[in-house]
Amino acid sequence: MRYGLFAVAFACVSVLPLSAETCLSPFVKRLDRPEKILYVYCVDADAKDNDFLAVIDVEKGSKSYGKIVHQLDLGTKGNETHHFGFTDDRSHIWGLTLFSGRIFLIDVATDPARPKLVKVIDDAGGPADLGSPHTAYALPGRMLISFLSSKKGALPAGLAEYTNEGKFIRKIAFPEKSPYGYDIALRPDLNRMVSSGFTYYDNYKHPLAKMDFKKFGDEILIWDFRERKVLQTIKTGGAPLECRWSLKEGNNYGFTNCALDNSLWVWEGQKDGKYTARKLCDVGKLPADLRQSPDDRYLFVSCFASDEIQQWDVSDLKNPKLFSTLKPGIQPNMMHTTSDGKRMYITNSLLSTMDRSDDFWVKRAYITPEGMRLDPDFIIDLRNLKTGPARGHDMLLN
Amino acid sequence: MEISSNTLSRKRRTTPMNILLLFLTIAGADDAAPRLAVIKAAPAVKLIDQDEKPRRLEDYRGKVVLVSFVFTTCSGTCPATTHRLARVFHDVQKRHGLKEKVEFLSITLDPERDRPEVLKNYRKLYDIESPAWNFLTGSNKQVKDVLSAWGMWARPAANGQLDHPSRVFLVDQRGRIREIYNLDFLRLPWVLQDLQELITER
Predict the structure, then answer these.
(1) What letter does residue B44 receive in the DSSP assignment?
(2) Cα distance from B42 to chain A (closest Cα, Å)?
(3) CA dist list (Å): A185 to A23, A301, A364
């Protein structure tokens, strides 16, 4: 067979991302060059102006390097703009909101430096009786959205799929006894998805001191993705948040940060096909975000309440080691590592109801063989914008 | 439910496992919410094939169609996609009951270079002689309109190639998109399972 030649040529096509860009859906097209633009999804902190997407020039040598070059007005305020994600072809960003339930579809392909708001889906979860859209996860030609609440702001949370154009396709319900939702992460080669559990709108809408800490998730769900069916429910520490599969093909494990347990947990596939989970290590207070190094060796965990970012060496799962610690400023939260794994962008707003400081910024750290080091020349002050102060949360690079 | 390509092979078609599989497939098709959700109506396609014969997607009603988008000079995902599809195609051709109901269409992303005779040669590279897999092209505008309708695009990249999304669409007998694969999900046993489910839907 002539096409047998192609079998040899393509037998080694990896099922995992060929690029080093970590913590995106494996279906998102990867950058094949250093980043030029950093998008920061911002809440207008004094709620006087509309929420917006900040466009920051991060191209070395550019005249406007290190500056906000554009603010895309999202047209409404009070949305609690939180997480966002690329579509599979990286042409659009889906911006999600924790208070209003809106989803913003933003074109970042036509002119990446001046993104354009092309569609707003009000009450995006409505067709599925869901609210509080949290995680935007690209599938081929579609988006999988994790919602934190029912439409009324209570439980159960759930998942829903949409076309890239924003048309609702279907709801994926959580089991009755596991009603909490937060993040989702897929390993296509294993046909497995993991979801985690935070809390719901009627609880997180209150200031931190008034939240009911008994009403948070404390388990992860293991899914057969093609069946959209839960196979296992596994107990973890309180409030497992980000879900990060190991990046190496053949590795059948992943990590989550348990915010109320101040710990990292690892889930591991066993020979019988089932999964187990265990505490990997104790970390700083309120671990809010979790990122991976491209070589799969390090985890970066932002500890919101102890004002630090910890870098853990997890090359030996039986003996994780704290490799370095960075003190970037008060309440570090979201992180985004670059495609070469050498830089990390950091923001410091978690949620309007949970922030304890008004000193909002975007900073950058170098990730060196010796550990993390703050870049003293890259600080974006988010307190004095033309729209007043802003809480920066999630970030994406382009 | 995961099945291997062997599970569905001709030799073992009448084993109890396959009878059970068929039962489960038919039972699944009766559910209000099938495993393969209806994503959206497949947009129209009206182009010409490698033999310059007009082809319209609407003429494939009653068949399950795998629609891919590739270009012949691609050095990225297109050859890998076509190779994976060829594995599926050659396997399907061995299965009575399936081969009569499944068609393949590959639409060029580069109509300027991929003229019918080029597509004819490309087809030969993958040992495709059956009329069940056709490669389509047209004028620049015709192809551009089809790409746009399917949410696809092709733009010149810095390396001289075309940058484009990598997607393969599974279209059911009623002309509806029921799955979108990229290379990660374009696995022989999984695609066979999906095809089997769709051809038994009523």
Answers:
(1) P
(2) 12
(3) 9, 17, 26
Our CA-based measurement puts residue A22 at a distance from the nearest CA of chain B, in whole angstroms, of: 17
d(CA B140, CA B147): 10
First to last CA, chain B: 21
- Taking residues B17-43, what's their average pLDDT? 67
**3-class state of residue A292 by DSSP:** strand
Instruction: Report which of B104, B61, B101 is spatially closest to residue B199, judged by C-alpha positions.
Output: B101
Distance from CA of A336 to the nearest CA of B (A): 24
Question: What is the set of domains in chain A, with CATH numbers?
Answer: 4-397 (2.130.10.10)
* Alpha-carbon radius of gyration of chain B: 17
Mutate to test the interface with A, among B39, B109, B168 (most CBs of A within 10 A): B39
Q: Please tell me the distance from the alpha carbon of residue A385 to that of residue A157, in angstroms, as a whole number.
A: 35
Q: Is the pLDDT of residue B178 over 50?
A: yes
B160 — alpha (psi -120 to 50), left (phi > 0) or beta?
Answer: left
Whether residues B153 and A91 touch (CB distance < 8 A) is answered with yes
Taking the Cβ of residue A6 and every Cβ of chain B, the question of whether any pair is shorter than 8 Å is answered with yes
Any idea which architecture B37-200 has in CATH? Answer: 3-Layer(aba) Sandwich (3.40)
Angle at the Cα of A301 (from A298 to A307), degrees rounded to 5? 135
Among A387, A236, A367, which Cα is nearest to A313's?
Answer: A367
Give counts: helices (H), strands (E), chain A.
Answer: 2, 28
- pLDDT over 70 for what percent of chain A? 95
Here the ipTM equals: 0.93
With bands split at pLDDT 50, 70 and 90, how would you rate the model's confidence at B10? very low
Q: What's the Cα-to-Cα distance from A68 to each of A72, A166, A345, A357, A361, rounded to whole Å?
A: 11, 29, 14, 22, 12
CB contact under 8 A, B127 and A3: yes
What's the pLDDT score for residue A15? Answer: 38
Question: SS3 for B143?
Answer: helix
Say if A331 is an interface residue toward chain B (CB within 8 Å): no
Least confident span in A16-20, A134-138, B66-70 = A16-20
- Contact residues on chain B for A108, CB-CB shorter than 8 A: none
- Domain limits of chain B? 37-200
